[in-house]
Amino acid sequence: GHDYVVFFRGCLPCCTVILLVLFELALAQYEHLDTPRIQLRLAGDKRKHNEGRVEVFYNNEWGTVCDDDFTIHAAQVVCRELGYLEAISWSPSSKYGKGQGPIWFDNLHCTGKEKTLALCPSNGIGVSDCKHSEDVGVVCSDKRIPGFKFVNTLPNHNLDIQVEDVRIRAILSSYRKRIPVTEGYVEVKDGGKWKQICNTEWTQLDSRVICGMFGFPGERKYNARVYKMFARRRKPTYWDYAVNCTGNEAHLSSCKLGQASSLKLNGTCAGGLPVVVSCVPGRDFAPTSMTGFRKAFRQEQPLVRLRGGAIVGEGRVEVLKNGEWGTICDDSWSLLSATVVCRELGFGTAIEALSGGRLGQGMGPVHMNEVQCTGFEKSITECVFNKEALGCSHEEDAAVRCNVPSMGFQQSLRLSGGRNPYEGRVEVLVERNGSLVWGTVCSESWGTMEAMVVCRQLGLGFASNAFQETWYWPGEVSADNVVMSGVRCSGTEMSLSHCLHHGAHLSCAKGGGRNAAGVSCSETAPDLVLNPQVVEQTTYMEDRPMFMLQCAHEEDCLSSTANQVPANSYRRLLRFSSQIHNNGQSDFRPKAGRHSWVWHDCHRHYHSMEVFTLYDLFSLNGTKVAEGHKASFCLEDSECDEGIEKRYECANFGDQGITVGCWDTYRHDIDCQWVDITDIKPGDYIFQIVINPNYEVPESDYTNNILKCRCRYDGHRVWMYSCHNGKTSQLFVLVSHFNVDNQII
């Protein structure tokens, strides 16, 4: 033991206190020596890095923990031992799959304050009557313990290291100025210093994991000769460990770690060099040439897409099958399957596999269920899955969040003057006279699409408002401080600089002081989607006399030729119902407040949005032949999914909107729910409905705001068929495949 020498002056009670302290120190030291030395990891079919089956490494073998008597206190000990701030929850009955090997702990009774799971009272290590169907799992918080240092005490343990402790450092001058960085040394931060890894035990599978971590779908070969020359000029500082990955890991923290056998005592790498990786960026992140534009490639129709995500690399997973987009049920949805989707779409490994329709609910069929991937598939469609989706609803739609390359976009944009970090005046960092300065954006033509790009670029979610006046926010902004004008975005750009704008030749008549552009952002947004089946099933034709259409005529719901016809004439109307679902994550509310709604005396109702939907009829060559529009005289919850209560009702000047999980039905028999086809000839047409056409209200996905149908009119009857949501669908394929008899083939 240790000899403790204590110098003190005083009475007997002082001696007693000091003896008690010495006894506790000795007891703690004894307990530490007697405590089994274990290592923990989270494994199994997990959807995030900070969750999984609790596995224990002891006696050179990985095993599990039984769920008997397990509590949140035990989960707290597990999470803190792994470096997480706290435990969120725990799960019994092998939620993350059955483990293998011994069950090391059973009947754990932790207080939550133990420094290691091995200090919790239990039956004894290795003493258990459980089966692996009782393996316990935990979910830890995303936040790490500040300054947490992983201590390597066991061979072949897992390295618990966060991505901020790893980097790809560009070495060659040709790569230093490129964004993103795709090639260079793999470096690990250890003891405050960046160190290289000896490459004698490094494999292509290790490179695959590193590239995936940094948002790249794959790796490629590089010119090793150049790096040999560089290593001779500058002596590397090597890390003590070697990494051994299977290639399926979503993060370096899941790879095995061992002592680097090739390192000599003098710190050199015997017969080797520092590890270099060269990653292949996805199409959206490929470095552009000096000319500033990319070559145009012929793109095949993708089989997978993401919808409903706020930022690049996240969204609900949708799959194309038989010309129709559908979703994936979240049964057995895992980080491994999510990573296959991410790599297929040109991103890196998956950060998270989301379930329960977390990023909004889709429409149409559920194409895949119980997806099981090996991790090396080129497409999610190559994975094993159950074609039967019985019991699956869109409430179980699977989604992903992927690692994407760091492009540095956030450093060139900021919000100022707002009441919180999610709102403010938009300011852009630009170069002026050889120095970088912050300036404002002209608000002329500034709208929802531009605000969407700003919120995405800053990682703040969706736009909730686009402001053309920001004088009420604090901060001195001069009218001549405008650095960007004429901004026009499609809404899908990753950076405001990617949008069309005036460049160096600024033009802003209003000035950029009081009228500088501003935004407010939100983590959630609504998503309106039309039900195509309802349109098909309710379409019919009606001849209606003009004297019954006076109110509709006042609201411009008839074609222009109705202005010159007598009151006893008839108008031929193409009538239908439209059922508009809110499948997003927040309620759809009209942009205008109740105080500014417009009263229409003829119909005796308020309009909260003057144009809520557009109805158009096109010839097969794309020429518009008839049109209609619908003002939102009543946005309300007609019906809701089970368990969801209606919140909006128009009666008695009530609040207008559509609740998440509810739908608003515009019946075929109400005014303006039609297209006036009096003047068109019999034939085949394309019918189109567009919701929220002017993007007045921000949504998470505008691509599904369009519905297109085939329409046949023979002069006496009308048919609507092949209705599909989205800007592109099999409809256009159908239009281009006619035989001589004008029949679809």
UniProtKB/TrEMBL annotation:
Annotated InterPro entries: LOX-like_protein, Lysyl_oxidase, Lysyl_oxidase_CS, SRCR, SRCR-like_dom_sf
Record's signal peptide: 1-28
PTM comment: The lysine tyrosylquinone cross-link (LTQ) is generated by condensation of the epsilon-amino group of a lysine with a topaquinone produced by oxidation of tyrosine.
Stated name of the protein: Lysyl oxidase homolog
Similarity comment: family membership: Belongs to the lysyl oxidase family.
Function summary: Mediates the post-translational oxidative deamination of lysine residues on target proteins leading to the formation of deaminated lysine (allysine).
Cofactor: Cu cation
Domain SRCR: 40-141, 168-280, 304-403, 413-522
Predominant place of localization: nucleus
Keywords for this protein: Basement membrane, Calcium, Chromatin regulator, Chromosome, Copper, Disulfide bond, Endoplasmic reticulum, Extracellular matrix, Glycoprotein, LTQ, Metal-binding, Nucleus, Oxidoreductase, Repeat, Repressor, Secreted, Signal, TPQ, Transcription, Transcription regulation
PANTHER family linked: LYSYL OXIDASE HOMOLOG 2, LYSYL OXIDASE-LIKE-RELATED
Uppermost EC category: oxidoreductase
Source species taxonomy: Eukaryota, Metazoa, Chordata, Craniata, Vertebrata
GO CC, any one term: membrane
Keyword Oxidoreductase: yes
Annotated S-S bridges: 66-130, 79-140, 110-120, 245-255, 373-383, 489-499
Reactions listed under catalytic activity: L-lysyl-[protein] + O2 + H2O = (S)-2-amino-6-oxohexanoyl-[protein] + H2O2 + NH4(+)
A GO BP annotation: chromatin organization
GO molecular function, one term: copper ion binding
Membrane-traversing stretches: none
Source organism: Sander lucioperca
Compartments, as annotated in UniProt: Chromosome; Endoplasmic reticulum; Nucleus; Secreted, Extracellular space, Extracellular matrix, Basement membrane
Annotated EC: 1.4.3.13
